[in-house]
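I keep forgetting this: the sequence line spells out the residues, with the fold written below as integer tokens. I include a record here:
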Amino acid sequence: MQADDAKPISLTLPFQKEPYQSKILFPFFDGLIPEGWLLNIAVANWKINSRDRFGLLLTLCRDCIGCVSITNGEIMNYE
């Protein structure tokens, strides 16, 4: 079930019933990962490979601004 006033998180990720699948991280999520000196600090502190985009996303982006949550668990159903 979808709320009448719901909005997709990105124009490139419109609502659909099927799960999104890709061999690369979707640009919306990749954009949440820090860059530059902040990325270097995160890589050094958490010992994560800077090319492991999904690992970085799960470790560094759990508390995002807005209505997006990054978790390493089952898909949540809000119906």
The radius of gyration is 14 Å.
